[in-house]
Structure formats: C-alpha cells, structure tokens
Amino acid sequence: MSFDIVPTNLAVTAMRDNGYKNPAYAIAELIDNSIQAGATRVELLCGEKKVSLARRTRFRISEIAVLDNGKGMDAEVLRIALQFGNGTYLDRDNHTGIGRFGMGLPGSSISQCRRVEVWTWQNGVENALYSYIDLDEIEAGKLSEVPTPEGKPVPKTWHEVGEAFDHTGTLVVWSKIDRCLWKTARAIIDNSEFLIGRMYRRFLADDKVRIRLVSFDMGAPNKAVQEDYARANDPLYLMPNTSCPGFPPDVANGEPMFEQWGEDKVFHIRFDNQVHTVTVRFAYAKEEARQGYNPGAEPHGKHAAKNVGVSILRAGRELDLDPAWSDPSEPRDRWWGVEVEFPPLLDDVFGVTNNKQSARYFSELAKVNLESLLEEGQTLGAFMDELDADEDPRAPLLEIAHAIRTNVDTIRRLLRAQTAGTSHRRRRDNGRNIPEAKATEATKKRREAGHSGESDLQETQMPPETRESEIRDELVQQGVMKIVADELAASTVLNEFKYTFVRAALDSPAFFNVKVKGGAIIISLNTNHPAYDHLIEVLEENSDGADEDELRMRLSKASDGLKLLLSAWARYEDEQATPESRDRVKGARWDWGRMARDFLRGEE
User: Fold this and answer.
1) Which residues pair with 489 in a beta bridge?
2) Which domains does the chain have, with CATH numbers?
3) What is d(CA 599, CA 282) in angstroms, rounded to the nearest whole number?
4) What is the pTM for the complete model shown?
5) Is-contact 478 524, C-beta < 8 A?
6) How confident is the model at residue 390 (pLDDT cuts 50, 70, 90)?
7) Is residue 334 over pLDDT 90?
8) What contacts 272, CB < 8 A, 6 or more positions away?
9) In whole angstroms, how far apart are CA 320 and each of 21, 182, 345, 424?
10) 584-596 mean pLDDT
C-alpha cells in the first residue's frame, strides 16, 4: 500500500477544479505557451462529431486543438511542460514574458478534458515528439509519471485542417472532453473570439501574431464549417480597426470610438530591490459615439457593454477585465475605460493567481473605502508616507486605486454633461405636448396679464439668427455636444419655445441654474446634485426591458426625492433668524406657488 502525502490520482482529480472562468480562459493558457515560444501563427481548431441525443442527431464537440509555429520543445522540455507545477519560466530571472507558474498546459487541459496529447517538433513536423496525460490511466494506477516522449506522426486530421505547420511548432490536442461549458464548435469559437481578441489585443494589433479560429466536422476535416481570424478587442476603444462595429452608421468601421483622457499616469513601485513601472491609462467615449436616443442599444454600444471594468495587463496580455471598479447599475460605465499595465516581476505585489485570471490584491482595493483608512484631517499622501513599503510592498497600490477612482468620477461627470439635452431632443417629435411648449404657453398668458421679463425684451430686439447663435454658444459652454446644441438652439427658435432644458455638471450646490440667452430661458439641471439622480435620471432612464418592480422602484425613488426637496425647503424656512427673513422666504414660496399653479393648470 502506498502512503504518499498526496496520492497522485486524488491530487490530479482535485486540480480539475482549478477555477478557470470558462473554456476560453483555459484555451488562452495554451495560446500563452505558443506566444511565449515565439509563434507568429496560432490556430484554435475545434472538431465536432455527430451524436444521437433524444432521438435527434446533433453535432457536439469532440476534440479541441491548438497549433502553433513556435520554436517547439525537445524531449526534456516536453516532459516538464506536462508536469503539474513545473515549467521553464518558474525562476524569477525568467519572469519577463506571459508564462510563469508551470500549471498552464496540464492545468488548463484537465479542467476541460480527460486526455491531452502533445506533438512538438524542432526539425520538421515529420520528426515530431509525442507524449500525453490521461486521467483514466492515472486513476487506474497505470500512469504515474509523464510518458517518455517518442517519435510519433501527427494524425492526418490535423494536417488537413491546420495551416500553421512549419519547420518548428507544437500541437496540443484535447480529447475525452467532459467539462467544456460550450457543447458545439461554433459556440466555442464565438465565445472565445471576443475574449481572445481582448486578451491578446496588443499582439494582434501589432501584427506579432495571427490567431486563426476554425470549426470543422471530424469526418471531413478538409472542409471548415467556420473560419475566422481573431481581431483585436480593445476595451479602451483607442485602437483602430478592432472588432467594434462602426459608429455612427454612416462612419466606416475602424475609427476608434473613445479618446484618451489626459496623459498616461506612471507609478513607480520598489520591490525586491528594484524599481518597477506601472502605467495607468484612461479613455472615454467621443461625442459622436453617443449620438441618438439610445446609443447603448446600437451595435457599438452593445459591444462596449461587454467590456466594462478595469483592464489589467501583465506583459502586454490581459489578465482580467475587473468589473469591481464599475457600477453595475450605471449604464454609462460602458463609455469609459481604464487600463493598468505592470511587469511580471510585480506578480507578488498585484497578487497574480496561478491560472493568470486575476490580480487579487489589486482587485480587493476596488472594495476598500480609502477614506476610512485615513485619520481625521490626514491626506492620502501623508498616509502613504507613513506606510513601510518594504514591510508591505502592496502599499503603493493604494495610490493607484485612488487615482483610478478620482479620474473615473471625473469622467462620469463629463459623460453626464456630454449628453445634456438628449432626452429633450427625443421628445421634440411629440409636437406641442411637452413641458417646454406648455411653459411657453403659460408665459404668454402672463405677458398678456402685464408681466414681463428680461427674456421677453431680448426676444423682441434680436433677429432669429442672433438668438439661435447665442443659445447655441451658451449650451456648448455648459458642455452640451455641439451637434445637440445646434439642434436645441434651432428647435427653440423655430418653435418659439421660451424654455429649454439641458443637463450640465455645474460647479454649484444648486439643483438647477437659470440663464437668459437669445430670448430663451435656459434651465440647466445639475447632474452633480443628488436631486438629479432622485428625480430626473430615475424617471428619464430608458425603461426598455424594465419589469414592473423596477418601474415601481423608480417611481418610489422619485416620490422620496420630491419629499426630501420639500423637506429641505421647509428646514430652510425654519432656520431663518428673524421674523422679517422668514416672511421674505415665505413670500417667495407663495409667489413661486402661484406661478407653478399657472404653469401646471394645463396638466389638470
């Protein structure tokens, strides 16, 4: 009887549950190995077979292979590559590329299948060496070590479907697939392409590697059912010619959808007696990317919705798109991007997991309230100075986290102001039955009763083109997109509206601002004020797909917001220091109430 500390069969079985998020992440481990081996061509080959299911015949995935034209392996390296926890990049001196932990090939493979076979060659494919791992043989006690590599021809099937065979290379084949989430080759290709394009976007955009994706019938491997080449998928949308659809429809595909926010922010981290550089980049959507009523429902908006979060890059390869830094209830978060790039020598600082799917120490900071760490009156800089980086090398990550939060908050305010007036434009087509028209009608009645204002004088003294120009210039100054400002100004003058509403990030505690320009009264709703979230945003947010509970919640939130606003006014009256000031405030409330009564009578 064997008394190994960790019985081989039990250990390998446990390793199957090593936390790969989906098959695409497991496949990415094989692509990592290919790129690390200097491959310029990599192919994901997914073979199907017909199977009988519930009296019907269906195609189901049978074998998955990754073929590359990298430098190949000799017999010793091949055996090491198939060992769990071993590898050629484990030493710190070798931590310069995308490999590291020695778990990639065997770990990723057994997470999806029960048998993995490897052919590799350094002097022509006809001289390929072969070895394998088979869980059935391990569990039966027939296989306790990696089989000695032997010369063995690559099966004809892979020659017929593969195109990347070269003087050197490697072919990894998964069979006995029992844990793959996606059951068809098409599903594997479709789901993997988006993720692979994002993970290796730097390599693809720079033409360092081409990744071919093929699905085929194992019975006819020379006829591909589906064939694609992975395109770069940039979550910052700063790269041209990516997989993102064009925007708007009349603009050709290929133009970047975002623009960079400021310059790259560079941080220096001292670790292991060396200084390492971490680069953080920010981006946000261009104005034209957010034109129209609901750009989030357009193809480019749907694409962006799949790329929400902070992209964490290690050696140019994305580890994770971490959604913890975004707000799942905020649809605008699809319109910004953040990229954090660090070298492999900082793996221990960032907490890189052995399957290279996350940087856990860095991700944990997304949930930390940095202000709670500070003593009263203490600045983040002073707090950082007190930390001992030698004692806890992760301390510098706090500064990076603070920079991300600060900049993202600023970008969010910019994005809110960017679409100011969008809902107003949407309702223009409803004719005169909108608040702007009703308020204009009420104002006419007040003028007829002898009441006049500054805007009335401007309206009579300025020609229409001058009025339109003044209104447009004011809207642009408040941050409204020029294309929206042009339409709002023209519509206001053409329809003789006295009022126009816009959304703007005001540097003021007021809920709204009032400005008279070009004979119009411009009412700017302050998107930075909590009342905006409680009253305007919650009611105007696109309700497509919203269920009854969500709509009821929105109405309840708006009702609560209105009551809180009235409570604030009541307290304002209560805090007046003298009877005279209380009477003035009370008089203002009465005057406004009379005006509101006149304006709202049309709603009765």
Assistant:
1) none
2) 8-229 (3.30.565.10), 258-415 (no CATH), 422-528 (no CATH)
3) 45
4) 0.71
5) yes
6) low
7) yes
8) 92, 345
9) 11, 21, 17, 38
10) 86
